[in-house]
Amino acid sequence: MTRLRLKYVNAVRKGGRSYFYFRRSGSKRTPLPGLPGSAEFMEAYQTALAGAAQTKVEIGEARTLPGTVNAAIALYYKHPSFTKNKAITQQTDRNILEAFRLKHGDKRIVTLEERHMLGEKAGKPAAQRNLLRVLRSLLKVAMKTKLRRDNPALGIELERLETTGFHSWTEEELRQYEAHHAVGTKARLALHLLLYTATRRADVVALGPANIRNGRLTFTYSKNRTEMNIPVADPLAATIAATPMIGVKTFLVTDYGKQFTPAGFGNWFRDRCDEAGLPHCTAHGMRKAFLRRMAEAGCSEDYIASISGHRDMREIRKYVQAVNRARMASEGMAKTLAYFPETGKGTS
Against a cut of 0.70, is the pTM above it? Predict the structure, then answer.
């Protein structure tokens, strides 16, 4: 049997049981739940690893040469342009910048040019977009703090990225998932929480009994701070009532009774989809599925936004237009065949 080896993980044997800790020079010892390789263990390990990396950067900050990309990034991490973002966004942007600084950290920030920015991401349009977004913000702060006079990232234009985004679950796929994960399981509860609230994973992990008052679910979207007040759908209420193990503070909890992190929940739900034979389906695709349902039911953009929390109607308009096109195509075909009833019957 292959033994999983992870950096900075130490095992301590007590009372016939092994306990695992994360310990890296310059950071405090952190206990890790479960066994190496389990979802809870790996989630805690990645969190500790990210925290240790951040600590390491801050410890070495005093030795960072002034005027370098390293110095600019260290300054950026303390600037409101970075700190105003949510924790999950900060971590995403930090991962992007840390990868960039490995190649360009010792360069002078004033010598940073377009060729340094996106060449390594050639052939990866989505990665290029994310890197360009972060560099524009970094260089904007560099200008404000007099580290350089211009922002070359502003002049870079990328080709339009044609993508449909996350796959929207079909009705057949929803039935397939439900057939595999029965009522009463945490997997079915997760499905209905995502589907009947149309929330993103960052919000669904925070929902709990305290959010329900008088048959309505009240919460605030983390992305745009929109305050929501939506009815608890009957299927969701039935699933919550039929699920024996739910959290006290949040409906969805890990095997150790703790609230999921958004990333941890995404990985866990990914496994549940795989178990149901749906490797192409995701948690975010569930949100799209419910918006698609509302459009098919004839709901207007305002009705859909009352559930989705959108402030910009352009995305919602895509769902409505797609449904309207399909409906009009069916009606148009029916009208044409009724007007020309003999067409296509052939001759005898």
Answer: no
